[in-house]
Specification:
The complex is a heterodimer of chains A (217) and B (317).
Chain A: H1 5-22, H2 26-50, H3 55-83, H4 95-114, H5 122-145, H6 149-170, H7 176-204
Chain B: H1 5-37, H2 47-57, H3 68-87, H4 102-123, H5 126-157, H6 162-166, H7 177-194, H8 213-216, H9 222-249, H10 259-283, H11 292-316
The chains are: A mainly alpha (217), B mainly alpha (317).
Chain lengths: 217, 317
């Protein structure tokens, strides 16, 4: 039962999310996010193989790997270069503590999933759902504890990965057009938020979201 | 593992040879790789052996205020490490089975550290005391990580005996690469801390503000120092060997091989680990003292996840 190939891939994704919660260096965060998306893309390809080599799902796997694994991190790295901030030193709780918190959430999501009715084949539903829910939790921890806006974007992207993984492992696969729409939304969202971060930096000379309480024009 | 009489003799000879040669070759590899990365020629690969011989032939200088604790420290350390080297399955082959319970092994490691700490305090110099204080702080942090990592595979094998954990008999574990990789990483990270190597403590420096292990053995000289160095080399070989065992178990096709090829792959893995450690030490900087707990937190993360997977897996079963 413990960690066959599919389980290793999905738990590899949640493992990178845990490491992201522990790393404060923004470039390391983005590189780990890229690795996580590769894991998700690989899990998608394995699902496609299980669904009698469905070409649509293979297409989605390629699109995820290229759009979310390559273009989104590159956009964010460009944003980092522009605002010249390297690390998220001022998190609200220390990064190692946040990392251990996400491990606790991994255990919690395991317990939560045991209460879920598992619809599909028994072997993939449980580990997939556990990894997906723990991804959502890790993203939430990241969004709640970090101060720099880029980290919050990464947290949002991790939540999005988690929701996608949940849908992937609990259904027979969504129509390709829906997936493409979601991917496009994420891409545009990241580009807009990258621009916004730059604007915030430009007008307030910092991107610390906790200090954005007094907005003036 | 039941050997015939001839096999036992061969196992004794091979393990004595590797117990003697491997620690020296490992430290030689680390120093050589580090030197080559810094564009130096570096010491010969057997330099550690020459140093030990030189130290054993030197006269020992002992302060007039120290008690027997200080004088026996080297002997205690070396004998504990020799016992560990015989009982821990850090090689694929083992001549005797002394019963290596994982808690027994971990607390033998702690015992040798305890004796070094006492000796450092006994010598009465200020350096010894602060080195001891730092060493105890670090070891308190890293011990849970090491216990949890080894215990999590203990949960899977339903045994706390390291021999049973690392024997290739339980075929149900052959397809569980993930947990072996996690445990191997945790052991190697904990090993870096235990051995006072680079990100926590620089083994080559004698700068008083930063040294940890070197500060404790500052007062030792001659044969006493040689025995301490010997036990440190053995400790390194044992910890690298344990993590190499974990990585070896994570390769599924190794499980069906003969013991000879397993042993050869295992020794190669140990040297790969040594080279990786040397490379890491060349590119990394020593951490600030305040940052050391964060480094150990990563180690603890690996063990915690491995523990969760083990508990989760055995619950479902």
């Amino acid at each position: 039962m413990i960690l066959n190939l599919f389980e290793m891939v999905v738990f590899g994704a949640s493992f990178t999310a845990i490491l992201i919660a522990g790393a404060t260096h923004l470039r390391v965060n983005l590189a780990l996010y890229s690795v996580q998306t590769l894991f998700i893309g690989f899990a998608t390809a394995m699902t496609a193989h299980a669904h009698a080599d469905d070409m649509g799902i293979y297409g989605i796997a390629c699109a995820i790997t290229i759009l979310k694994g390559l273009i989104v991190p590159v956009c964010l790295v460009m944003a980092i270069d522009k605002i010249r901030i390297q690390s998220d030193a001022a998190s609200i709780i220390p990064a190692p503590l946040a990392m251990h918190l996400t491990i606790v959430f991994l255990g919690l999501s395991y317990l939560l999933v045991r209460g879920l009715p598992v619809p599909l084949e028994f072997s993939r539903g449980w580990p997939g759902a556990t990894a997906a829910i723990s991804l959502v939790f890790s993203g939430l921890v990241l969004m709640l504890t970090r101060r720099i806006a880029i980290s919050q974007i990464v947290g949002f992207l991790i939540i999005e990965n988690g929701i996608y993984l949940f849908a992937l492992t609990q259904t027979h696969g969504m129509p390709m057009i829906v997936e493409m729409g979601v991917l496009l939304d994420v891409l545009v969202g990241v580009m807009i938020s990258g621009l916004l971060v730059f604007k915030i930096q430009h007008s307030f000379e910092h991107i610390d979201v906790t200090r954005l309480t007094q907005l003036k024009d | 593992m039941n050997y015939g009489a001839a096999d036992t003799v061969v196992a004794w000879i091979v393990s004595l040879f590797s117990g003697f040669l491997l620690p020296i070759l490992l430290i030689g590899t680390i120093r050589k790789v580090k030197a080559r990365l810094q564009n130096r020629v570096g010491p010969p690969i057997f330099q550690a052996l020459f140093d030990l011989v030189k130290l054993f032939r030197k006269k020992q200088t002992v302060s007039s205020t120290v008690s027997w604790i200080f004088k026996w420290n080297g002997a205690i350390n070396l004998s504990v490490m020799l016992l560990l080297a015989l009982s821990v399955p850090w090689l694929c082959y083992k001549p005797v089975s002394l019963g290596a319970d994982l808690f027994f092994v971990l607390y033998l490691l702690a015992l040798s550290r305890f004796s070094t700490v006492l000796a450092a305090m006994d010598a009465g110099s200020a350096f010894g005391a602060f080195g001891a204080s730092r060493e105890v702080t670090i070891s308190t942090l890293v011990e849970p990580a090491l216990v949890l990592a080894l215990a999590s595979i203990g949960i899977l094998t339903q045994s706390s005996d390291l021999d049973a954990i690392f024997s290739f008999s339980n075929a149900a574990l052959s397809n569980t690469s993930g947990i072996w990789l996690l445990v191997g990483t945790a052991v190697i990270l904990a090993g870096l801390v235990e051995l006072s190597r680079m990100p926590v403590d620089d083994p080559t420096t004698h700068l008083e503000l930063t040294m940890v292990h070197e500060a404790m053995i500052l007062e030792c000289s001659g044969p006493n120092l040689a025995m301490l160095e010997c036990s440190q080399l053995l400790r390194m070989a044992i910890l690298f060997g344990l993590s190499a065992q974990c990585f070896l178990h994570s390769i599924p096709c190794v499980w069906t091989m003969t013991i000879v090829s397993q042993g050869i792959i295992h020794v190669i893995l140990m040297f790969v680990i040594a080279s990786c450690v040397a490379t890491f030490e060349s590119v990394a900087v020593k951490l600030q003292w305040r940052k050391v707990p964060e480094f150990i937190a990563y180690c603890l993360t690996m063990s915690l996840i491995a523990g969760l997977i083990a508990v989760g897996g055995s619950l479902v079963k």
